[in-house]
Amino acid sequence: MNEMLTIAMPKGRIFEEAADLLRDAGFRLPAEFDDSRKLIIDVEEENFRFILAKPMDVPTYVEHGVADLGIAGKDVMLEEERDVYELLDLHISACYLAVAGLPHTELNEIAPRIATKYPNVAAAYFREQGSQVEIIKLNGSIELAPIIGLTDRIVDIVSTGKTLVENGLVEYERIVDITSRLIVNPASYRLKDKRISELVERVQQVVKANLTVK
Ligand SMILES: Nc1ncnc2c1ncn2[C@@H]1O[C@H](COP(=O)(O)OP(=O)(O)OP(=O)(O)O)[C@@H](O)[C@H]1O
Ligand SMILES: O=P(O)(O)OC[C@H]1O[C@H](OP(=O)(O)OP(=O)(O)O)[C@H](O)[C@@H]1O
What we know:
With 214 residues, this protein is of the alpha/beta class. The protein folds into 2 domains: 5-93 and 179-213, Periplasmic binding protein-like II (D-Maltodextrin-Binding Protein, domain 2), CATH 3.40.190.10; 95-177, Periplasmic binding protein-like II (D-Maltodextrin-Binding Protein, domain 2), CATH 3.40.190. The protein is 33% helix and 29% strand. It contains 8 helices and 11 strands. A 6-stranded mixed beta sheet has the order 2-3-1-4-11-5. A hairpin with a 4-residue loop joins strand 2 (40-43) and strand 3 (48-53). The two termini are 37 Å apart. The mean pLDDT is 96. The site of adenosine-5'-triphosphate has 16 residues, from helix 1 and helix 3.
């Protein structure tokens, strides 16, 4: 029997597409997987243990080795900078990080303020631009910040652009394109290399096939 693999799955948006990828790669995941409130799901047929984590926490579990593998958005990887390897771009849950704000407004020259759920990414971006900004960390509804006068700009995820439009905001700069990644703990990668490489191979086939269809 193969050695067990523990995989940290992000709850929420990415979950369904990630589960579809694994199923398309031929892994048998039970129906329970999709609508359970359990946080740990063992799939004995495949010798997998899934842990269902908040998306931002997935790299933390993988870095500490309590999960061998994980699926995380590139946004989370950039923000968290964890000591893990990125094995595959899964090309799912595509979106991008952008700077947005009220239309026809300039950045306050003295102390521009930026609201974001991604303080590290935002700080690095404005540093590279040579702008000194004050970052205000929010946990959601980021678009509120410029509307109610908390900040000049936001750095946030854009997908369809609907949230910006419906709140009267415009995009100023696109920072980076985002898709979800398969990540691995470096020690697990060494110790379970055969099992992990086989999984990567199977998932990669599906990713390639999906890209061809697109
Ligand atoms: N429109 C989008 N908004 C936010 N994240 C998106 C979007 N489209 C794709 N993603 C991807 O999904 C991930 C976030 O998933 P999700 O919204 O479920 O988590 P979350 O932001 O932690 O949610 P919450 O804090 O609302 O529980 C991001 O890391 C990103 O890679
Ligand atoms: O371009 P769109 O397709 O409109 O998607 C982008 C929006 O989706 C996300 O918010 P989410 O729904 O996760 O809510 P939150 O504000 O609570 O983070 C993100 O923070 C944007 O607000």
